[in-house]
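#struct-help
A.M.: can someone run this one for me? Single chain, 465 residues.
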Amino acid sequence: MMLNTLSGRFLILTTIFVFIAEVLIFVPSVARFREDYLNDRLERAQIASLALLADAPIDAALERELLENAEVFNVVLVRDDVRQLVLSSPIPAPIAATYDLRDVTPLELIRGALANLARPGDRVIRVIGTPVREAGRMIEVTMATAPLRAAMVDYGLRVLILSAVISVITALLLFLAVRRFLVVPIQGVVDAMRSYASAPEDARRIIEPSAGLRELRNAELALQSMQMQLTAALRQKERLAQLGAAVAKISHDLRNVLTTAQLFGDRIETSTDPAVARILPKLLGSLRRAISICEGTLAFGRAEEPPPALAWIALADLVQDVIDGERLAAGDHDISFAEDVPPGMTLRADGEQLHRVLSNLVRNARQAIVATGRPGEIAIAGTETDEDWIVTVTDTGPGLPPKAREHLFQPFQGAGRKGGTGLGLSIASELVRGHGGTLTLARTDARGTAFRILLPKTIMRLDAA
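D.P.: on it. C-alpha cells below:
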C-alpha cells in the first residue's frame, strides 16, 4: 500500500499542501479579476459617453448600441461638481448592491467576489469609480451580475485546473527528490541491518557510513558503533564458550592426576618423618580442594558456582591454613603474614568456598608485592557484630591501577597486574554472593589495598503467601 510508505505519504501530503496554497492564492486572484472586470466596464462606459461630451446629438438606437457594447444600463458622470446622466436605458430590476472602487480594501474586494460567486441569479448592481485621464470626479454605472459571475466562474475554473496541474507536478518532483535523497539511503540502512542480522559475527557485514545528509550519517555511525560492539561481544562469547569446553576437558584430566596424587599422599601418611607429618595434612587438604574444584567444573558446563554447603567453621584455623599455603608459595621473597582473628570466632559458611575466597585475595596481594621487588605485609583480620561477620584482607602493595578498579569484579577485565586473567576476584565475589554477603574494595592507594568480606548472620527467607 502506498499509504504505508514514507515516499507515498510524502507525495500525498505534498499534493494536499500545494493545493491548499493554490486555493489561498485563488481567492485573492478571483477578487482581483472581478475588480479588473468592473474597472473595464467603467472605462467602456466612459468611452461610450464621449459622444455626448462632444455636444453631438445621437439617436436612441446609437445610445442603446453604446450601452450594449459597454454592458451597462446607464452611465452617470460628475464633472465640475455637476452630476449628469450621460447614457441611460430601462433598468430591469431594482439595484441590489452598490460597490465603490475608489477606495476599496483587499478584504472588501474578496468579500464582494465571494458574494458574487455565492449568488447564481442575475441581479442589478451599481458600480462607482474614478474616470481615467481625469475626465471627471466620478463615474457611476449600473450593470447585471450574470455576465460578471460567468466570467468569474470561467476564470476560477482555469485557475483551479492550472493549480491542480502545478500541485501534481510539484508533488511528483518532490516525491522523486525525497526518494532519491532520503528514502533510498534509509532503505540502504535497512538492508545493511538485515544483512548484519543474518550473520552478526561476520565483520564484513558491518555498515560503512556513506550518507551525505548529516542526520542520516549520524544514524549510520551510531549503527556502525553498535554493530562493532555486538560483533566483539559475540566473538568474546564464542571464545568464552570454547574456553569453557577446554576447561572442562582439562579439569577431567587434572582430576585424574590429582586423584592419583592423593593416593600417593595416602600411602606416605604413615611416614614417621616429622617434616612429612607436618606438611602432609596441608598437602592432602590442597589435593582435596583441587579435586573438588575439578568435579564442580565437570558437574555442570556453566560459569555459576554451586550453592554453598553451610556449616559452622573456625575462622582462625581456616585463615591459618590459607596463610601457611601462601607462605610456602612466597618462598624467599620478603613477605610477612599476619592474622588477627579471635580464637573462638566461628561463622556459618562453606569452608571450601571461603578458603578459595581468602586464597584468591591473599594470592593477588602476594603477587602484587612480589612484582614491586620490595618487602611487604599481608594481614587477615576477623570481627563480628550482632548482624554480620566481617573479614578483611589488607596488604602493603602498590594499590590497584585505575583500569582494574573500573572492572574490578568482571571476569577477564579486572586484572590488577600484567599477565593476570581477572578471574580471581570475579570468582571470589560470586562465592561471597552465594553466601548472601558482599565483597567490596575498602581502599586502594600507594599504601596498599584492603578488601572487606561481609557475611550476614541472618538467613533471609520469603514469607509464604
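A.M.: thanks! The longest strand covers residues 376-384.
D.P.: also worth noting: The CA atoms of residues 269 and 280 lie 7 Å apart.
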